[in-house]
Amino acid sequence: MSQVEVTQSSEQKWEPHILTFCCNWCSYAGADGAGTSRMQYASNARVIRVMCTGRLNPMFIVQGFLSGADIVMVLGCHFGDCHYLKGNFACNARMTLLKPYLQAIGINPERLYWDQISASEGVKFAETMDNIVKKAQELGPIANELGVHAHGARQNKKARATAEDISDW
After folding, report:
1. Each residue's pLDDT tens digit in the chain (169 positions)?
2. Is 55 helix (H, G, I), strand (E, B) or coil?
3. Residue 53's closest CA among 122, 124, 140, 114?
4. At what angle do helices 122-139 and 27-36 cross, to 10 degrees?
5. 38 Cβ partners below 8 Å, 6+ apart?
6. How many other β-carbons are positioned within 10 Å of the β-carbon of residue 84?
7. Following DSSP, what letter does each residue of 68-115 receive, concatenated?
8. Chain mean position to CA 99
């Protein structure tokens, strides 16, 4: 089978993979609220709970893209509601600075999504997940932008043991 045929057959089966970093105190609780309320939303996301989005290293986001995530979401507390006082302001500054870096390394900055969801906003979490999956489908696979760098990571997980949690789709 030629490489063109392999690419066409893999694109027919393609479903977007969303990597989501959620603040422990607000957005993760919102996700939990959506789940316990049995709200229906797309199941394309891997949710990683972090204590505060202000402590999220931007290189984790880049590693997520290189490991095959089609979109990386960062969901934190609303401004003024951070349990660590200014963590969400720090995250906002990092996300603003990270977008030009992503552009420079060949990743569409629209693939990075940052929003604020509180613990009581389970409905907003579910709607956001559905909207992000639609956006990922419009943007297409990350492998179209990164080539074998992203596509190979998803197929050869054992070669990237350090990113196993992120790339184990």
Report:
1. 445 555 555 556 789 999 999 999 999 999 988 888 888 888 888 999 999 999 999 999 999 999 999 999 999 999 998 989 999 999 999 999 999 999 999 999 999 999 999 999 999 999 999 999 999 999 999 988 887 565 444 443 433 444 455 555 5
2. helix
3. 114
4. 100
5. none
6. 15
7. T-SEEEEEEPPTT--TTSSHHHHHHHHHHHHHHHHHHTT--GGGEEEE
8. 14
Report in angstroms the alpha-carbon separations of 163 from 35, 54, 147, 169.
Answer: 27, 21, 18, 11
Q: How far apart are the first and last CA of the chain?
A: 25
For residue 131, what are its two tokens? 């909207």
> By the 8 A CB rule, do 56 and 50 touch?
yes
Residue with tokens 């990386």: 72
Q: pTM (2 decimals)?
A: 0.79
The two structure tokens encoding residue 17: 């993979």
